[in-house]
Structure formats: C-alpha cells, structure tokens
UniProtKB/TrEMBL annotation, chain A:
Organism of this sequence: Parasedimentitalea psychrophila
UniProt protein name: YeeE/YedE family protein
InterPro entries: DUF6691
Transmembrane segments: 41-60, 80-98, 110-131
Keywords (A to Z) from UniProt: Membrane, Transmembrane, Transmembrane helix
Domain of life from the UniProt record: Bacteria
TrEMBL record, chain B:
Signal sequence range: none
Membrane-crossing residue ranges in chain numbering: 6-25, 52-72, 78-97, 118-138
This protein's record includes keyword Protein biosynthesis: no
Family: Belongs to the TsuA/YedE (TC 9.B.102) family.
Organism name: Parasedimentitalea psychrophila
UniProtKB keywords: Cell inner membrane, Cell membrane, Membrane, Transmembrane, Transmembrane helix, Transport
PANTHER family (UniProt xref): INNER MEMBRANE PROTEIN YEDE, SULPHUR TRANSPORT DOMAIN-CONTAINING PROTEIN
Name listed for the protein in its UniProt record: YeeE/YedE thiosulfate transporter family protein
Statement: the UniProt record of this protein carries the keyword Aminoacyl-tRNA synthetase: no
GO CC terms, sorted: plasma membrane
C-alpha cells in the first residue's frame, strides 16, 4: 500500500510539474530573471502548492499516525546552520544556470534527450560527492 | 502565454496534492532531492521501495503524457559544460541544504519551518544572481 501511494504521489507530482511549466527551463529562468524580463508564473506554482499543503499540515498535526499507520514527521528542526545556507546558495546557482531543479529534472527525463540525461547524471554525481565532502568539512549543523 | 498563470496555479495545486498524499498516506515529507539522494548515497536503504515507486511515477507518468499528447516545451541548453556544472551544483547543494524547491519550498514553508523559509530565500537569491552573472554579464545562457 505504501508503495502504491508513493507511486500515486510521484505521478501527481510529475503531472503538476509539467502542467505548471516547471520543466521549461526558459520559464524557470524567466522567473529568476528579476532584473530582466521577469515572468511571475512560478509564484502561482509555489503559491498553489503551498496553499493545500498548509491545511494538510494543520490536519496532520491533529493525527497520531498517517492513514497507513506510519509515524508522521517530527516538528520542524529550527536550527539554521552553515550547511543549509551554503547548500541552498549552491543549489540556487545551479538552478539558475540550467533552469532545472531536481523534481522537474526527473519529470522531464523521458523527453529531454541527452541534455536532460547529462544534467540528471551530473546531479547524481553531485549528490554522491556530498557524502565525502560533508565528512571533510567541520560540521556546525 | 497570457494564461500561463492559470496553468501555474493548476500545476501548483497538483503538486500540493502530491505532497499531501505523501504526507498523509506515507507519513513523509515530499522532497525530490531527498527521495533521490537517499537512494544515491544509500542513506535511504530501509525505505528504498517507497522511494523507487515515487520516482517511477515521477519519471514515467510525464513520459506517458508526452507520448500521448506530445512533450511540453523544455528549452534545455545543449551546452555540456553548463549542464555538468549546473547538475553538480544542484546535486551537491541540495544534499548540503537537505532539500530543494519541493522539500524546503513547498513542504517547508507550508508548515512554517524556519529552515524551509531560509533555504528558499537563499536559493531564490542565488538563482537571481546566477541569471545576472551568467545571462546578463557573461552571456553564456
């Protein structure tokens, strides 16, 4: 059951990403182009996603477990450390450069040709590189 | 083009629905980089089935849609160096920040998580700067 619901969730996520235009790199870069020809569409995407999720979190707070009996996430961690800031900064730079973040990169994998595959493969390498790098850098958070 | 905010909003609501299913059914936070990253570095070994089925839906369902009604526009660059650098930055950054647009942006902001909000501010800022530098100053994208 848990695998079926995660498949449904992944499918909905993929559909939402292509409907919203998040898989179009020009649209994403247009949203980030605050000093150029700014395209505000993505504000509707983010707003549209956050709105139902806000109520879902409120409802989840009143439950002990998920519908399938698994534990619900702990209250959010509040510690803002160096890794969060540096990581988000690096991610944002890459997001602007190619116009793809992890979700849309996967949602467009089947129709984005070799360029999409190359971006995806590099992203996997980056994720894998993070493990030894994290170990080498003294951790504050 | 004029109606792109409608698609943005519809797609956003679908993404919010996907995150709601993942939270209420599986008891998990829907973050694309975390679901993939846990499979890449082995930290998600115990939940690999639920991660794999999520990714299957995320990759295959947009593929099916593209097959049936045609692929949405993507405009991805064919410059290999841009794709490789951007991919590594996105992979590395999302693992250091422990989240991307879906995890920190959609699921984090909607539960009023400080970490989610800080991460979103920094990746949007870096994305904007990235466009200024690589598009308007260097002209490589």
């Amino acid at each position: 059951m848990r695998n079926l619901s995660s498949f449904i969730s992944g499918s909905l996520f993929g559909l939402g990403l292509i409907i919203s235009g998040m898989t179009d790199t020009v649209k994403v870069q247009g949203w980030l182009d605050i000093f150029g020809d700014w395209d505000p569409t993505l504000a509707f995407v983010l707003g549209g996603a956050i709105l139902p999720m806000f109520f879902t979190w409120q409802y989840a707070k009143r439950r002990q477990t998920s519908f399938l009996g698994t534990t619900l996430p702990e209250p959010p961690e509040q510690k803002v450390g160096r890794n969060l800031v540096i990581g988000s900064f690096l991610f944002g730079a890459g997001w602007g450069l190619a116009g793809l973040c992890p979700g849309p990169a996967m949602a467009s994998l089947t129709f984005n040709g070799t360029s999409g595959a190359l971006f995806f493969a590099s992203m996997v390498v980056g994720m894998w590189l993070a493990v030894p790098l994290k170990r080498r850098i003294p951790q504050t958070a | 083009m004029e109606q792109s905010w409608v698609y943005g909003l519809l797609g956003g609501l679908t993404i919010g629905g996907a995150a709601s299913v993942y939270l209420l059914m599986n008891g998990r936070i829907m973050g694309a980089s975390g679901i993939l990253g846990g499979l890449v570095d082995g930290s998600g070994r115990n939940t690999w089935r639920e991660r794999a089925t999520f990714l299957l839906g995320l990759i295959a369902v947009p593929g099916l849609v593209a097959l049936m009604i045609g692929a949405p526009e993507t405009h991805i660059t064919s410059n290999a160096w841009i794709l490789i650098s951007a991919g590594i930055l996105v992979g590395l950054g999302t693992r250091f920040a422990r989240g991307c647009t879906s995890g920190h942006g959609v699921c984090g902001i909607s539960r009023l998580s400080l970490r989610g909000m800080v991460a979103t501010v920094f990746y949007l800022l870096a994305g904007g700067l990235s466009i200024v530098v690589f598009k308007h100053i260097l002209g490589v994208i």
